[in-house]
Amino acid sequence: MGKATEIIREKFTEFILDHHENGGDETVIIKPEGLLKVAKFIKTHPELDFNILMDIAGVDYLGREPRFEVVYHFYSMRRKARLRIKLPVSETDPEVDTLTVYWKGADWYEREVWDMFGVRFRGHPNLKRILMYDGFEGHPLRKDYPFNKRQPRIGPIN
Amino acid sequence: MGLRKTVTGIFGQESFVTTRLDSAIGWARKYSLFLYPFVTACCGMEYMSISCAHYDLDRFGAALPRFSPRQADVLMVVGTISHKIAPVLHRIYEQMTEPKWVVAFGVCTCTGGFYDNYATVQGIDTIIPVDIYIPGCPPNPHTFLQGLMMLQEKIQKQKQEY
After folding, report:
1. Which of chain A's ends, N or C, has fewer CB atoms near its CB within 10 Å?
2. What letter does residue B59 receive in the DSSP assignment?
3. CB-facing half-sphere around the CA of B16: CA atoms within 13 A
């Protein structure tokens, strides 16, 4: 178990579902309700100091419950260390808390995850599509989005 | 003196030539092409190399890019066209003054290429008329030069509006 995982597990035993480590990069899988607390903790704790939110990704595990996963990648400039936090999200209510309150850069990442996977972010200041256009129906990176479905703005449906 | 010699050298002693007006206008138009580069993707790199000194588009009178569609003759569509940008491309085409021609540069503009997905227009000819298709991913510069010469041939032979 890595150092960051240990510190987080000590503080938030009730939120941790699983954890693993590969090549010095740690991954912690937590319950969605613990996200805000854990995020604030790893940003402010002097021994963790993950001050950069590098990316947010969505994953669709169609057929599994919970179906979706939201993956956060953190980086500590001072410690040159990385941390990945994964959140299982259910299909019936795909909603997690926004991280824009701690990292302003989360804004566009969360819009992208909403656009592509349809996961909502509670408290996001401007949650609208970022890559697709207004009027586009559905979320194209979901595994059950028909691969040959076309929604052109002009021209024929080719 | 030198000029007179040249003129008689080309046209003979008569110093004039006869032609059809259509043919003369076509000859003038095909050697003064102002390109509008609508560059959206990686094909742009190849287009940049083509439009620089090494391949010397000035040989064809097509070296000057105009970044206003109102001053351009040839719409060069270079790169993948997504459904999101499709109305913009259509608007640019409508803003160009007649006579105008469209070149589809790269396989993405010709057919959509391997982007057979929710985001990509499957060939720009579903939106605007295309005169010359230049396939390739990206097209070889010589492929482009051949396409340009084919466009010139087409301009020369077409019925000229004036």
Report:
1. N
2. G
3. 2
- CA–CA separation, A137 and B99 (whole Å): 39
B127 CB within 8 Å of a chain A CB:
yes
- The C-alpha atoms of residue B75 and residue B37 are separated, in whole angstroms, by 7
Half-sphere exposure of B126 (CA within 13 A, CB side): 21
Which percentage of chain B shows pLDDT scores above 90? 65
Residue with token string 């995982």: A5
Give me the residue label for tokens 């499957």: B122
Q: Please give the residue of chain A at the shortest CA–CA distance from B128.
A: A155
**Contact call for residues B76 and B36 (beta carbons, < 8 A):** yes
ipTM above 0.85, yes or no: no
Domains of chain B: 1-30 (no CATH), 34-156 (3.40.50.12280)
- Residues of A within 8 A of B118 (CB-CB) are 140, 145, 147, 149-151
Residue B10: how many other CB atoms lie within 10 Å: 9
Q: Which residue of A has its CA nearest to B82?
A: A152
- What pLDDT score does A3 carry? 85
Q: Which of residues 69-108 of A touch B (CB under 8 A)?
A: none
Q: How far apart are CA A134 and CA B132, in angstroms?
A: 33
pTM beyond 0.80, yes or no: yes
d(CA A62, CA B158): 56
Task: Write out chain B residues lying below 8 Å of A133, CB-based.
Answer: 83-84
